[in-house]
Design a protein that fits this description.
Blueprint lengths: L11 H9 L7 E6 L8 E9 L12 E8 L11 E11 L1 H4 L4 H15 L4 E14 L9 E13 L3 H15 L21
Antiparallel strand pairs: 1-2, 2-3, 3-4, 4-6, 5-6
Helix pairs in contact: 3-4
């Protein structure tokens, strides 16, 4: 058996419980949310927020979603019984939002986070979207805004919890919190979150 793929006999319930048991840095709050029912026979989903001000409300610093899908029929596009669908979003300083390499950097942070945790994967796909905005009329006082959004999916191999940990790191990185920065102020904490 190839050690880089999750065992085919690993049950979905066992995998979901392993994900639920993970702990995260103190300034990143993760909660289980309703999983989409139409994507696969089995699914578990999580939402994560960087330093949220209220439970269940997307954070102004950065937010994300992570969904683990399981289908014993192994869809051709997945190349196996497991698939991860993820989303991460964070506001940016407007001058950072104009960087032509921003989308490439966001994707590389995902790949780097997966690699750093030994979370092997295949059949990856995704989009990185940067948005710039300017307020007019009654919104003019809010000023300019920018945000980055990364949507990605991949077929996981190895320890499934490593993939959830990598996603958590990605959301924190997009929000300006690199690994080891717990307790440090978020860069641009008063930036405009309109996107």
């Amino acid at each position: 058996m190839d050690d880089t793929r999750p065992p085919r006999d690993l049950g979905f319930a066992q995998a979901a419980e392993a994900l639920r048991a993970l702990t995260f840095r103190d300034d990143f709050v993760v909660r289980e949310i309703a999983a989409p029912a139409s994507l696969a026979p089995d699914a578990v989903a999580f939402a994560g927020d960087v330093r949220p001000s209220a439970d269940g409300v997307d954070s102004e610093y950065g937010t994300g979603r992570f969904v683990l899908l399981h289908n014993d029929e192994e869809p051709d596009q997945w190349g196996g019984p497991w698939r991860i669908v993820s989303f991460a979003q964070a506001p940016l300083e407007p001058e950072i939002g104009t960087d032509p390499l921003l989308a490439d950097v966001a994707w590389s942070w995902l790949v780097d986070a997966l690699s750093a945790r030994g979370a092997a994967f295949h059949a990856a796909s995704g989009t990185a979207t940067k948005t710039l905005s300017k307020g007019f009329g009654t919104l003019a006082e809010e000023g300019d805004g920018a945000q980055i959004e990364l949507r990605a999916s991949w077929s996981p191999a190895g320890d499934l919890t490593a993939h959830l940990s990598a996603w958590a790191e990605l959301v924190c990185m997009l929000a300006g919190l690199p690994p080891g920065s717990e307790g440090i102020a978020v860069f641009g904490a008063h930036r405009n979150t309109r996107g």
